[in-house]
Amino acid sequence: MQGEPVIQTVKSPKANVQKNSRWVSFIKELKRSKHYYLLMSPYMIIFFLFTVIPVVFSFALSFFYFNMLEFPRFVGWQNYSRLFLNDDIFMIALKNTLMFAVITGPVSYIACFVFAWIINELSPKVRAFMTLVFYAPSISGNVYFIWLIIFSGDSYGYLNGFLMKAGFILEPIQWLLNENYILWIVIIVQLWLSLGTSFLAFIAGLQTIDKSLIEAGAMDGIKNRWQELWYITLPSMRPQLMFGAVMQITTAFAVADISIALAGFPSVNYAAHTIVTHLMDFGTIRFELGYASAIATFLFLLMVGTNKLTQKMLRRIGE
Amino acid sequence: MAAKMIRYFRLPRTLNRSLPVSILLFALLALFGAFMALPLIYAVNNAFKPLDELFIFPPRFFVNNPTMDNFLDLMVLMGNSWVPLSRYFANTLLITIIGTAGHILLASAAAYPLAKYRFPGSRALFSIVVLALMFSPHVTAIPNYMVMSWLGWINTHASIIVPSLAFPLGLFLMKQFMEQIPDALLEAAKIDGASEYRIYWSIVMPNVKPAWLTLMILQFPALWGSDGGSFIYSEHLKTLHFALGQITEGGIARAGVGAAVSLLLMIVPITLFIISQSSVMQTMATSGMKD
């Protein structure tokens, strides 16, 4: 019966010593890394101040009712339960967003890589020119203009005019006001616009690949371009591929501007309504900021989950 | 003609494509390229259209009777403006240059330790940066304003410049590229007695030149197109984009000037893009620092 305390007194100093030494080595490690902290500090201070604090604040706000006039009132999970149980339009937005993401995400990711891969092999001057051409939609300001003319609902719209001349249709179609077409039109325009950040990162990534690796690969029996792509090019570009994946996920799930420019806000019968347009509706029109924050938090979790999945898949490249 | 074009597909590689594949690829690139170049062509054409052509119905893509009227009108308008145009231009230049150069500097300084070393907190910090990319900026606008007003930065250029220095995108991009620098290179420098700062500046940065040139062409247009947001309200602090945007707000009568404005606003980012893209290739041709 008296054994137990004895054992404890024997044990505790030992544990203390262990704890102490772990603490000491931790401090040592901190001291050893002081240059690293110093290098990071300017960025991190600004980053926490202007990004992390607002994000944490919005996350907290998702548990409050806040209309910008009254002091925020704590409501617990109410915003979230309303989102899933009481908001039919959110369900439409969720369905549309998933549809956008599932189609535009992978397609534009692969397109970014394929075009970067082809362009990278052109002679330098042509390469610079082609990169500019493919990146053009991302730098020119008035891009939706063209699509509004092409899909214009009268018989002078380019697509209507073409189809009527060719005899496929007899009357013009209201492309941008028709529930059956609008989602697909937004998807097409989104794809056209999507050769942006990841495309440029891939181009730069392809240029940093070690040329001697490719020569070595040829020695080791790599027979064709596809093998070269799978065993050498893709694995050496893994960091850029991961970067591209994150960028594609963040853009594919956050479609909003294109939908608003082409389909209007709100779109006919919410046919092109997305999570972000829903969020803008509550955040900037109805001023229900707590609810808008709940939507943002949900979107965030959706992206994080997709990202985890994608990164797992990307690790298999070159195996 | 075709043979001349195909010569552009010179492959400096050990594996060569067959001629038909090259032709197919060229056709594919040309087709998609024409499609992607549409907005550029449209913007150029629009800027030279006389007013009657801008409003012609059905709308035309190409200009018939090119004119410089739109640009002349713009000059007259700007000459009458209350705050001289040069002021707006200087504001935008200040924001864009400090914001871009500073971002590249700070983001890569922070990316270097995260890419190459493990130390307490390194993994957590990096994941926070990546996660920050995924939170919708629409809801952080109000807390952001509160931070700004707490700092007393409302209606200063700092409110635009300082947050742009630490956008998450830059750190993520730089870190991914720095991972590829061989450790042996850094160790060799350390044995030679170089400090961490020296390594960052004279070894890491030259080796990731394509990365920071890319970051430059991503960050520059974003700041160049900044209209001051909700933080700047004094007229003499406003940006070029805002001033030119106001001209087009004048309605239908200003449509021609508006077309000229959008072309002018595009010229600077595109010029920068071309310069940086060609220098990416020059660096890669000369540096052989890989193991």
From TrEMBL, chain A:
<feature type="transmembrane region" description="Helical">
    <location>
        <begin position="181"/>
        <end position="204"/>
    </location>
</feature>
<keyword id="KW-0472">Membrane</keyword>
<protein>
    <submittedName>
        <fullName>Multiple sugar transport system permease protein</fullName>
    </submittedName>
</protein>
<keyword id="KW-0812">Transmembrane</keyword>
<dbReference type="InterPro" id="IPR035906">
    <property type="entry name" value="MetI-like_sf"/>
</dbReference>
<feature type="transmembrane region" description="Helical">
    <location>
        <begin position="241"/>
        <end position="265"/>
    </location>
</feature>
<feature type="transmembrane region" description="Helical">
    <location>
        <begin position="285"/>
        <end position="306"/>
    </location>
</feature>
<keyword id="KW-1003">Cell membrane</keyword>
<dbReference type="InterPro" id="IPR000515">
    <property type="entry name" value="MetI-like"/>
</dbReference>
<feature type="domain" description="ABC transmembrane type-1">
    <location>
        <begin position="94"/>
        <end position="310"/>
    </location>
</feature>
<comment type="similarity">
    <text>Belongs to the binding-protein-dependent transport system permease family.</text>
</comment>
<feature type="transmembrane region" description="Helical">
    <location>
        <begin position="98"/>
        <end position="120"/>
    </location>
</feature>
<feature type="transmembrane region" description="Helical">
    <location>
        <begin position="132"/>
        <end position="150"/>
    </location>
</feature>
<keyword id="KW-0813">Transport</keyword>
<dbReference type="InterPro" id="IPR051393">
    <property type="entry name" value="ABC_transporter_permease"/>
</dbReference>
<keyword id="KW-1133">Transmembrane helix</keyword>
<dbReference type="Pfam" id="PF00528">
    <property type="entry name" value="BPD_transp_1"/>
</dbReference>
<keyword id="KW-0762">Sugar transport</keyword>
<feature type="transmembrane region" description="Helical">
    <location>
        <begin position="36"/>
        <end position="66"/>
    </location>
</feature>
From TrEMBL, chain B:
<feature type="domain" description="ABC transmembrane type-1">
    <location>
        <begin position="89"/>
        <end position="276"/>
    </location>
</feature>
<feature type="transmembrane region" description="Helical">
    <location>
        <begin position="88"/>
        <end position="112"/>
    </location>
</feature>
<keyword id="KW-0813">Transport</keyword>
<feature type="transmembrane region" description="Helical">
    <location>
        <begin position="124"/>
        <end position="146"/>
    </location>
</feature>
<dbReference type="InterPro" id="IPR035906">
    <property type="entry name" value="MetI-like_sf"/>
</dbReference>
<dbReference type="InterPro" id="IPR000515">
    <property type="entry name" value="MetI-like"/>
</dbReference>
<feature type="transmembrane region" description="Helical">
    <location>
        <begin position="21"/>
        <end position="44"/>
    </location>
</feature>
<feature type="transmembrane region" description="Helical">
    <location>
        <begin position="252"/>
        <end position="275"/>
    </location>
</feature>
<comment type="similarity">
    <text>Belongs to the binding-protein-dependent transport system permease family.</text>
</comment>
<feature type="transmembrane region" description="Helical">
    <location>
        <begin position="152"/>
        <end position="173"/>
    </location>
</feature>
<feature type="transmembrane region" description="Helical">
    <location>
        <begin position="211"/>
        <end position="232"/>
    </location>
</feature>
<protein>
    <submittedName>
        <fullName>ABC-type glycerol-3-phosphate transport system permease component</fullName>
    </submittedName>
</protein>
<dbReference type="Pfam" id="PF00528">
    <property type="entry name" value="BPD_transp_1"/>
</dbReference>
<keyword id="KW-0812">Transmembrane</keyword>
<keyword id="KW-1133">Transmembrane helix</keyword>
<keyword id="KW-1003">Cell membrane</keyword>
<keyword id="KW-0472">Membrane</keyword>
